[in-house]
Amino acid sequence: MRHHTFRRLSACLALLAPALAMADDKITLSFNDRPPYLVAGADGSASGLTGTPAAEAFHAAGIEVAWSKVPPNRQLVVIKEGGPNCAIGWYKTAEREQFAKFTKPIYRDKPTVIIANPKFAPAEHAKLGEILAAKGVRVLVKENFSYGPYIDAALDKVKAAQTKSNGTSTQMLQLVNANSVDFMFASEEEASYLVEQSGIGAGNFKQIRMPDVPAGDDRYIMCSKDVSDDVIGRLNKAIGAKKSKK
């Protein structure tokens, strides 16, 4: 009798297993409103250059998502704390790989440019290191943010006065306009969007391209270490299938 009861219990658990697995797969997906990369929708989801491919990857992988609009610094805390949490559009760095898992890249930036106050006048065709080494230069950078390995390394090498901000990109642009700093960094696609949407006027800024700065870096879906390798694998499969169709 006990044998039959055990078999019935095992059969019930086997039937429940797929449902339990799907429940475990539900991911809280964090993002911040950062056009054109991430644009918050009326339903709480995100679209944009990184938002759309991330949403498509989760959908194609059959993984349920709970969207969560969270400031960038808080996203890092959430990922470090663990649990079924992922975040959209982050660069992969050695430091972050200590506490997070990354999918295949979902987007590659165009080269990074400088958005500068018109009064800032570096030498024509100046390289990044030369610009950062200029006497009295004031650089605005986002707190806990990576600009990719090339720019991050350049910032570490120089003694330029760095103002760190945890504000939005638009708020940072206002500091540039107010001449509180000389310039900030942005990818080419974001720079154009920010200037157009600022309402300040394109004539109040200038974009400076640096000949030595390489093509933009890849952006990824970043997940906590608690997210299973199976989930990462399914997302990677969906991302790879999408790219192979292009």
From TrEMBL:
Organism of provenance: Duganella vulcania
Keyword Signal: yes
Keywords per UniProt: Signal
The name this protein goes by in its record: Transporter substrate-binding domain-containing protein
Signal sequence extent: 1-23
